Amino acid sequence: METVIVDLAVVIPVYNEEKNIKDCIESWTQVLSDLQIQYLIIILNDGSWDNTERVLSGIPQEQSIRAVSYTHLTLPTKR
C-alpha cells in the first residue's frame, strides 16, 4: 500500500450500519472537500451482521476513502 500524506484522517467505526453508512460517508466527504484539505476517511467495519460490508464494497475505494472489515473485535477479558 502506498504512503498517503494527509492533513486530516477521520476514522468511522461501524457495526450494523447498512442504512446509515452511505449518508455518513457522503456527509464527511462533503465537509472535508469544502475545507480544501488532503483527507482520508477510514471506515472500520467491526464484523457487522447486516449488509454493511456489501454497502461498503459498493463505495469506490478512492485514494481518500478506505474501508476495512474485521471479525467482531472485543475488549480482552480479565484474567
Topology:
Layout: E1 8-14, H1 21-34, E2 39-46, H2 52-57, E3 65-70
Parallel strand pairs: 1-2, 2-3
Strand proportion, as a percent range, falls in: 25-35%
Main β-sheet: number of strands, strand sense, barrel status? 3 strands, parallel
Shape verdict: globular
**Pairing-aware structural class of the strands and helices?**
alpha/beta
Poorly predicted regions are none
Question: How many β-strands, per DSSP?
Answer: 3
Computed over alpha carbons, the radius of gyration is 14 Å
Average per-residue pLDDT, rounded, comes to 87
Order of helices and strands: EHEHE
Helix content: 25-40%
Major sheet: arrangement of strands:
1-2-3
Number of helices: 2
Report the span from N to C terminus: 37 Å
Can you characterise this structure?
The protein is an alpha/beta fold and 79 residues long. Helices cover 25% and strands 27% of the residues. It contains two helices and three strands; from the N terminus they run βαβαβ. It has helices at 21-34, 52-57, and strands at residues 8-14, 39-46, 65-70. A three-stranded parallel sheet has the order 1-2-3. The N and C termini lie far apart (37 Å).
Please give a quick description of this structure.
This protein is an alpha/beta fold and 79 residues long. It has helices spanning 21-34, 52-57; strands at 8-14, 39-46, 65-70. The N and C termini lie far apart (37 Å).
Which features would summarize this protein structure in a list?
79 residues; alpha/beta; 3-stranded parallel beta sheet; 27% strand; globular
